[in-house]
Amino acid sequence: MTFPRIDLNRFLLKLLHREHGLRAVDEETRNAEMPAKAAEAMIDAALRNLGGACSIPIGTIDSGKTLSVDSSTLVASGLVVGATGAGKSRFLIGLVLELLERLGDLSRPGGSGVEIELVDPKYETYDLLRLALAALWLKTDAWKRDELASSIRIIDWARDWITPSAPFERIGTDVSDAYLARLRADVVVQASPQSYTDAMRHGYFMLGRLLIEKQFPMNLRFTTKLFRDESFRKRIASGIADPDVREYFLDLDRNLPKQTSEGLLRRLQEDFSFPEIRYSEGIPPKALRKLLPKDVPSIVIGNYSSRMSLPQSKAIERANHRIVDVLLKAPRRNPRRPGLLLLEESPVLLSRSSELIEPLTTATRTLRSVGMGIVHLAQDFSNALPADLVRTLVLNARWIAMFRVREDAELIYPHVLSTDDQSRAMPEAVRRRAFAKTMEGLPQRRFYFHAKGYPALPASSLTVQDFARSAGVSSEDELREIFNREIASRWVIPSSLAARLIAEWEAEVIDRAEVPPSAPGSGSKRNPHRTLADLLRDLGKDKESPE
Amino acid sequence: MKFPLEAVLRAAVLGTLYVLAAPVFLVIGTVRLGRILTAFSIIGSGRVICVHCGHENVLNRFATCNRCHATEYGSLLYCSFCRQVTHHLACEQCEVTLRVIPKGWW
Asked: Which residues contact A178 (CB under 8 A, 6 or more apart)?
């Protein structure tokens, strides 16, 4: 015998439904009757409160007033969403330049008072920022130019020159070799258009652990010899401190089937057939430390576009390796120095590495404590990424700049104030649809800026000046040349030098080890030289051997 | 006719158990009623203040049910078409989940 179950909540809500419906109608009517002045007063209050001790102008609102936001808000995590050509990149350039102007203090040791890292897989933003920095360099006093140039690092590659990187270099003491190797393996496997079997992925992971332990670069000759030459492998493996990795490579034939290791080698061979990749990732970390400037740069701009000379997957892979580096180093950064990681085309980067999503979402939540924010730029944010990731990123974004969009308009709609009588008179659903339509047709540079706790403000982004004209040079190509000569040259090395360094390393580690280890004692002892005749007989036997 | 001793004993034991359990049900019922009354005082006011950002969320709106997609004027917490009761809602401003109606016994 049981008592009948009564859902009291449902019963009461059903009872009150009519009353709630009437109140909802009242609410809609009240909203429609809200005087336009009240909405405008709210916008004015938001404009006043958004600014702070260090206001950074990011646009102008319809009344002509400047939309300035405190730097503490802007250097927190944010989202910039908009269709292609809507003005996202130029908004970002304007923001970076304003931040550099207001927070950059070149007289302080270490350069600018703000750290900026741009990861651009499509070249356009990288190029714009390059022009902007070249113009800034030209406008800087001659005695300060060197300081400015040394605070900027570029990451780029071409056939004749490359920015070297060492993905298998240890990052601090708190990041385990296994974790770093796992992230690297995941980035490579997920970015690759080729399929990796589980065993192949594990083989790459273990190879990564070995490279990190030995502080070796990724090298095709080394890997080939490691997989195929047992005596060489034993020699390398016996020097490994980590018993896990040592045992794996000592018993490689059982741990990694021959076909799998050959498949892995084929994939590596394909990757290393591109000189840009061979040279940029092949220099040993030890040589790299001597080669690159010791200064810690404040601004790092990375061009990870393929530019028709490389497969896109390799460019994405490199970008994701860089993101891993930044995220793993972030907890040890100076929290008093604000930092921004700008991820252009964020969904393109994130959709190619599921393992990166976890550290990135954690970072979005936690990096605030070390003064660092992550700004994601995307075209179709809601559809390009998994819903839970979108939710996490939106929840942790302190601000959103929404340019011309379709579905993403929903993210900002609840924060939009209706100031005109026509839209306020509309029912909620109609108003929502009308807003979606407005967002779909927003002109270039128009956007809604929403900071948490404030209504969304419609504005136009600041006009980004013609850099060549402002710097007094004839063309943008000239600016690019100045940038490459005065700034980028510090961080790039010619491919010929990279090739020489790699050859030296190969000679040291691979070729020297080619001498087969002494054969184990076979049991037959050589006759001792008891007389001069014995010695001469033996020498006669070996006369064809090299001296 | 035989006296139904077993049935009487069964009813007596069951009755005793209900009497013994009554104070427990009374406590649970009181707590639950208190929580429902608190929830309905909030629902009655028609506004939920976000504990995170302080935003005042309006409960009675022209809204679409997430389950059956029926659109009507009414409370965001109840759909009169599919009788779905929603226990929580997301703050309009910061999207923090706000629990309005308690779920379960406690």
From this structure: A209
Chain B closest CA to A387's CA: distance in Å? 14
Interchain contact B56–A (C-beta under 8 A) = no
Backbone conformation region of residue A493, classed left if phi is above 0, alpha if psi is from -120 to 50, else beta:
beta
A452 contact B CB<8A: yes
The structure tokens listed for A234 are 């034993």
CA A518 to chain centre: 48
CA distance B10 to A234: 80
Mean pLDDT for chain A overall = 82
Q: Do A1 and B14 touch (CB under 8 A)?
A: yes
Q: How confident is the model at residue A347 (pLDDT cuts 50, 70, 90)?
A: confident
Lowest mean pLDDT among A16-25, A30-39, A392-401, B37-46: A30-39
Q: What confidence score (pLDDT) does residue A470 get?
A: 85
pTM reported for the whole predicted model = 0.72
pLDDT bracket for residue A520 (50, 70, 90): very low
Is B105 an interface residue toward A (CB < 8 Å)? Answer: no
Tell me the chain B residues in contact with residue A427 when contact means C-beta distances shorter than 8 Å.
62
Fold of the domain spanning A42-164+292-493: Rossmann fold (3.40.50)
The reply to whether B70 touches chain A by the CB within 8 Å rule is no
Q: Can you tell me the distance from the alpha carbon of B103 to that of A206, in angstroms, rounded to the nearest whole number?
A: 49
pLDDT-above-70 percentage for chain A: 88
Helical (H) or strand (E) element with A61: strand A55-61
For B16-70, give the DSSP string.
Answer: HHHHHHHHHHHHHHHHHHHHHHHHHHHHHHTEEE-TTT--EEESEEEEE-TTT--
Instruction: Calculate the CA A294 to chain-centre distance.
Output: 22
Rounded to two decimals, the ipTM of the complex is 0.78
* Coil vs helix vs strand at A14: helix
How many helices (H) and strands (E) are present in chain A, helices listed first? 27, 13
Residue A122 confidence (pLDDT) above 80: yes
A111 has a pLDDT exceeding 60: no
Rounded to whole angstroms, the Cα distance separating A381 from A347 reads 7
In chain A, whose CA is at the least distance from the CA of B85? A10
Q: Between A and B, how many CB-CB pairs are < 8 A?
A: 79
> Rounded to a whole number, what is the distance in Å from the CA of A31 to chain B's nearest CA?
11
What pLDDT score does A547 carry? Answer: 35
In this prediction, residue A150 has a pLDDT band, given cuts at 50, 70 and 90, of: confident
- 3-state SS record for A419-474: CCHHHHCCCHHHHHHHHHHHHHCCCCCEEEEEECCCCEEEEEECCCCCHHHHHCCC
Burial of A443 (0-12, 13-18, 19+ CB in 10 A): exposed
| A363-381 per-residue burial string, b: 16 or more CB within 10 A, e: under 16 | bbeebbebbbbbbbbbbbb
State the average pLDDT over residues A242-263: 90
Cβ-proximal residues to A524 (8 Å cutoff; 6+ apart), any chain: none
Indicate whether A136 pLDDT > 50: yes
pLDDT of residue A239: 83
Mean pLDDT of A243-249: 91
CA–CA dist A282, A497 (Å, integer): 12
- What are the φ/ψ torsions at residue B72 (nearest 5 degrees)? -155, 165
Three-class DSSP category at A80: strand
Asked if A21 and B72 come within 8 Å (Cβ–Cβ), the reply is yes
**What is the rounded CA–CA span in Å between residue A180 and residue A166?**
12
